[in-house]
């Protein structure tokens, strides 16, 4: 840590000068370090985050925000960005103040760990990757396996002209194993990923059993049948349930969509939208979760925000603009991918809270349907209220039993119709929170996680 | 932004100060980016310049029959900063390993790849004014429309100077511009009409083309209204027409996953001559199509981009190589070492990543299927897919599919009511003899259109699996 300490004084000087030119100015500076290694049996590749530091300055101008970014935190770079901001202020001078209250938070927090990843050098990480690779050896039909293990320590400093100062250092650690099986020219793969915020202890969750299980899954997929198509009873695995939470009441409850009048959820805030067993939250303050943050990029502390409370749609995710427009308070969800990207209202860790049914009960209740497992992608339509979720594999459910393996499929449907169809949520013993990333549109990707337990409902599925 | 002096290019400033005996390469970029974000018809945010200048150093350490490769990127151009980045790369190279004892880096000075049109001169000289004018034209094209509007959107223009040098004497570079459009166009209103619907526009181009906007906005507005009125399709296997906008989300990723030297190294590349498609399936990789986002005179290692045949009348022909994989198989680079690739699309900055093997523009050769109308007539009954939410193709298995964001029923050879919802999917290409999109190609249209990063006519596939009501 300490990636930004040498630049803080100069950032304050620049901020102070710009504060004399407009009603409000803020800066987010960023730097990172880390290391990852990839081994596939043929080649070993290392990559560390670039030696890249930079800052984005945002000012309130006539009718909206304007901003400029620069890579580099040296005096010349900051002079360059200061000049750019001055030109923006001249082009669109502000005659009022920005919406909402500016953060005045004073936060300084770094990821706690007794086993820091930075103590591991290239040699030790390479040995770990080779060890993980060996876990899938001996499984028949496995043609190749790709192993990645790595960490990234990112520091962000937010300061503004209202007095906020938030310095956070977050270390994300992740390991993955992806075996590929091949038979008669047909290829199938599966993967296992485990990650979180912390130190080397996160990698304790990457085990030989889970790697071998992924290899066996890849091999079984060689004989998987084509999935059924059409409207079916569906049982979502915890990772697919995570995609449901993320795509439905995650993106749908990002309040910038409310302000743009493009969310089907806006008119039904406060109403009952699902069964009593359904609770969905976004929790940026979840300790150790992949998308844990200590504060957002407007200087607001991360928090747990309940979106759906026992079936009632009760809350949305806000930045300062949306909170001001809708009479709410910021929820710590204003996030930038990096100093080159603008901030948007974004999710953190979004999940369906556990219910009280068992997996076996839900399978029995499904009777005939399809179990969707291993979510890989999702997409939402905030305006039309549709979601799409892709699962890497699944099983048929016949006569209340899990039976044949089927290949990848997509689920499609209207969120509100799907909510009305939910008949059960399994208990905390099944809870799982995955690691992933999420974009806003096609860009602005940042770390995100989603999860839940097994969830039973009805939707359209088909081969994908 | 004005063009820099040749000797001032980011890569050269670093390369001139590198020391050491090991082969090296420096990739540099000087970038200015400008963005305008819209909320409805109002400007929500103006951004720019977003200034980014940096470089990536790659070093190669030969050991017996393997080579250790190390890479580090930085934006610190001081002697100390360059030394630190080079040391990072050298340390990684000590522990890294790639299975080749030989590789050839390109050489030459100046415009080593010739000229490919990838720079919008007006945008280069007057970026913010050009962007302002484009957004004004966009807003004007929506004026007076009572039931269609922009929900939100952005126009992002990137001006880049790319430079590459290496220890074999290469000193080259070129300027290029990229324009990314991302909009949601909403249809709404009307007496007791259906709920609002949106059509999503995602487009990448090398040029700002404001004069085309009026016609395009008409088309987007029609699509948004069709999304709004669309209903899920029937369930079953049926004839499906896929336009280039849909193929763009499928073909680059599946060809990138299998038709490369890295797939060959993993023993998952198809053997030359293997029949993977019908005779209608002739597919190229072409990095020199004027104004295409993936086009450039050279790839990101400095090799000239070229045109390669991947499938020749359904049979596997060439596969793609960068310098390292070419070395591993004792062949030559095809100019396909690219940086900054993600999900088949390219990031606006590339120096942060080392090169990796990727297609440039995938081009499906036009066939004898005729016009769009003739293709529909051939289909008879089925559906046309205008937009899939995300076809999320699997680069290894070739499986693709997703939700139908907009489609149309085809009845008696004519387009009928619009489709919204349901799923469509299949396998892009499978093992020899197994059914796939390529083996079920029944007709290929006669006129290709460009949809980043694909150039293709529409195709008729019979059948594909559709999930609906």
Q: What structural category do the secondary elements of chain A indicate?
A: alpha+beta
Global outline of chain B: globular
Q: How many H/I helical runs of chain A?
A: 9
- By DSSP, the count of extended strands of chain A is 25
Label the structural class of chain B.
alpha+beta
Structure description:
The complex is a heterodimer of chains A (464) and B (469). With 464 residues, chain A is α+β, with helices and mostly antiparallel strands. In chain A, 21% of the residues lie in helices and 39% in strands. Chain A is built from nine helices and 25 strands. In chain A, strands 1, 2, 3, 4, 5, 6, 7, 8 and 9 form a nine-stranded mixed β-sheet that branches. In chain A, strands 11, 12, 13, 16, 22, 23 and 24 form a seven-stranded mixed β-sheet that branches. Chain A has a five-stranded mixed beta barrel with strand order 10-17-18-20-25. In chain A, a hairpin with a 6-residue loop joins strand 14 (334-336) and strand 15 (343-345). Chain A is globular and about 70 Å long. The two termini of chain A are 44 Å apart. The mean pLDDT of chain A is 95. With 469 residues, chain B is an alpha+beta fold. In chain B, 20% of the residues lie in helices and 37% in strands. Chain B contains ten helices and 23 strands. In chain B, helix 4 (127-142) crosses helix 5. The radius of gyration of chain B is 24 Å and the shape is globular. At the A-B interface, strand 2, strand 4, helix 2, helix 3 and strand 8 of A face strand 1, strand 2, strand 3, helix 2 and strand 4 of B.
Q: Outline of this structure?
A:
Chain A has 9 helices and 25 strands. With 464 residues, chain A is an alpha+beta fold.
Strand-helix topology:
The complex is a heterodimer of chains A (464) and B (469).
Chain A: H1 8-19, E1 25-39, E2 44-47, E3 54-61, E4 64-71, H2 75-91, E5 106-110, H3 122-134, E6 142-160, E7 165-183, E8 186-189, E9 192-197, H4 208-221, E10 230-236, H5 238-250, H6 255-259, E11 280-283, E12 304-309, E13 312-313, H7 320-326, E14 334-336, E15 343-345, E16 349-352, H8 359-366, E17 369-381, E18 386-398, E19 401-406, E20 409-414, H9 415-421, E21 424-425, E22 432-433, E23 436-440, E24 443-452, E25 455-463
Parallel strand pairs in A: 5-7, 10-17, 16-24
Antiparallel strand pairs in A: 1-2, 1-3, 1-6, 3-4, 6-7, 7-8, 7-9, 10-25, 11-12, 11-16, 12-13, 14-15, 17-18, 18-19, 18-20, 20-25, 21-25, 22-24, 23-24
Chain B: H1 10-15, E1 24-39, E2 42-63, E3 66-74, H2 79-95, H3 121-125, H4 127-142, E4 148-166, E5 171-187, E6 197-205, H5 213-229, E7 236-242, H6 244-247, H7 251-258, H8 261-265, E8 283-286, E9 307-312, E10 315-316, H9 323-328, E11 337-338, E12 341-342, E13 345-346, E14 356-357, E15 361-364, H10 372-379, E16 382-388, E17 399-411, E18 414-419, E19 423-427, E20 441-444, E21 449-451, E22 454-456, E23 459-467
């Amino acid at each position: 840590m300490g990636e930004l300490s040498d630049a803080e004084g100069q950032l304050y000087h620049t901020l102070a000068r710009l504060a004399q030119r407009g009603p409000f100015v803020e800066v987010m500076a960023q730097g990172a370090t880390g290391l990852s290694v990839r081994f596939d049996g043929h080649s070993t590749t290392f990559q560390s985050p670039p030696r890249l530091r930079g800052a984005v300055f945002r000012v309130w101008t006539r009718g909206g925000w304007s901003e400029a970014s620069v890579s580099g935190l040296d005096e010349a770079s900051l002079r360059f960005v200061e000049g750019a901001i001055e030109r923006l202020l001249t082009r669109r001078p502000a005659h009022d103040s920005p919406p909402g209250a500016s953060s005045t938070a004073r936060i300084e927090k770094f990821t706690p760990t007794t086993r820091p990843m930075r103590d591991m050098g290239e040699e030790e990480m390479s040995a770990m990757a080779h060890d993980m690779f060996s876990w899938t050896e001996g499984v028949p039909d496995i043609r190749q396996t790709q192993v990645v293990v790595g960490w990234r320590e990112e520091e962000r400093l937010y300061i503004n002209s209202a007095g906020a100062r938030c310095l956070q250092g977050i270390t994300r650690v992740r390991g993955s194993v992806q075996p590929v099986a091949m038979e008669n020219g047909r290829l199938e793969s599966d993967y296992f990923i485990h990650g979180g915020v912390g130190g080397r202890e996160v990698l304790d969750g990457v085990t030989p059993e889970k790697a071998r299980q992924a290899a066996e899954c890849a091999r079984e997929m060689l004989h998987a049948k084509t999935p059924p198509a059409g409207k079916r009873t569906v049982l979502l695995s915890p990772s697919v349930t995570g995609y449901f939470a993320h795509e439905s009441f995650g993106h749908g409850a990002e309040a910038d969509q409310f302000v743009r009048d493009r969310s089907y959820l806006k008119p039904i805030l406060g109403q009952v939208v699902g069964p009593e067993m359904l609770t969905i939250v976004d929790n940026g303050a979840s300790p150790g979760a992949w998308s844990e943050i200590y504060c957002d990029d407007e200087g607001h502390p991360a928090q747990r925000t309940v979106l759906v409370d026992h079936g009632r749609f009760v809350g949305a995710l806000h930045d300062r603009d949306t909170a001001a427009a809708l009479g709410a308070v910021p929820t710590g969800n204003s996030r930038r991918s990096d100093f080159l990207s603008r901030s948007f209202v974004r999710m953190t860790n979004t999940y369906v809270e556990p219910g009280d049914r068992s997996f076996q009960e839900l399978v029995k209740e499904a009777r005939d349907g399809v179990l969707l497992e291993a979510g890989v992608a999702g997409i939402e339509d905030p305006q039309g209220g549709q979601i799409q979720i892709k699962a890497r594999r699944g099983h048929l459910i016949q006569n209340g039993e899990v039976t044949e393996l089927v290949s990848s499929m997509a689920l499609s449907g209207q969120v509100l119709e799907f909510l009305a169809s939910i008949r059960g949520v399994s208990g905390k013993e099944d809870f799982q929170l995955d690691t992933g990333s999420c974009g806003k549109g096609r860009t602005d990707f940042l770390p995100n996680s989603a999860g839940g337990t097994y969830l039973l409902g009805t939707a359209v599925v088909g081969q994908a | 932004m004005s063009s820099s002096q040749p000797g001032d290019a980011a890569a050269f400033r670093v390369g001139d100060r590198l020391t050491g005996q090991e082969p090296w390469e420096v990739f540099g970029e000087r970038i200015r980016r400008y963005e305008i974000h819209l909320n409805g018809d109002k400007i929500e945010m103006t951004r720019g310049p977003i200034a980014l200048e940096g470089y990536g150093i790659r070093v190669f350490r030969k050991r017996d029959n393997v080579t250790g490769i190390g890479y580090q990127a930085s934006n610190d151009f001081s002697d100390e900063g360059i030394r630190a980045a080079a040391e990072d790369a050298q340390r990684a190279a000590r522990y890294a390993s790639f299975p080749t004892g030989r590789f050839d880096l390109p050489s030459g000075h100046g415009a080593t790849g010739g000229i490919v049109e990838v720079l919008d001169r007006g945008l280069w000289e007057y970026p913010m004014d050009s962007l302002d004018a484009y957004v004004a034209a966009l807003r004007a094209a929506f004026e007076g429309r009572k039931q269609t509007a922009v929900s939100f959107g952005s126009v992002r223009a990137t001006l880049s100077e790319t430079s590459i040098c290496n220890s074999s004497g290469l000193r080259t570079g070129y300027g290029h511009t990229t324009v990314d459009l991302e909009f949601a166009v909403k249809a709404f209103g009307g007496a007791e009409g259906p709920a609002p619907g949106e059509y999503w526009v995602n487009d990448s181009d090398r040029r700002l083309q404001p004069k085309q906007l009026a016609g395009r906005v008409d088309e987007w507005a029609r699509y948004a209204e069709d999304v709004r009125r669309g209903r899920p399709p029937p369930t079953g296997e049926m004839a499906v027409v896929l336009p280039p906008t849909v193929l763009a989300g499928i073909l680059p990723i599946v060809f990138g996953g299998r038709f490369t030297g890295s797939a060959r190294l993993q023993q998952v590349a198809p053997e030359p001559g293997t029949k993977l498609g019908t005779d209608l399936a002739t597919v190229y990789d072409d990095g020199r199509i004027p104004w295409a986002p993936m086009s450039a005179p050279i790839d990101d290692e400095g090799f000239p981009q070229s045109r390669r045949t991947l499938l020749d009348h359904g049979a596997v022909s060439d596969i793609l190589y960068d310098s390292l994989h070419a070395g591993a198989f004792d062949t030559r680079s095809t100019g396909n070492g690219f940086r900054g690739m993600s999900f088949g699309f390219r990031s606006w900055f590339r120096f942060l990543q080392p090169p990796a093997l990727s297609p440039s523009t995938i081009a499906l050769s036009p066939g004898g299927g005729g016009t769009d109308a003739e293709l529909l007539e051939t289909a008879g009954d089925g559906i046309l897919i205008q937009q899939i939410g995300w076809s999320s193709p699997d680069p290894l298995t070739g499986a693709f599919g997703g939700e139908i964001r907009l489609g149309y029923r085809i009845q008696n050879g004519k387009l009928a009511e619009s489709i919204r919802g349901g799923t469509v999917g299949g396998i892009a290409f499978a093992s020899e003899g197994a059914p796939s999109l390529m083996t079920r190609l029944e007709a290929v249209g006669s006129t290709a259109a460009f949809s980043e990063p694909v150039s293709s006519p529409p195709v008729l596939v019979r059948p594909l699996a559709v999930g609906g009501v």
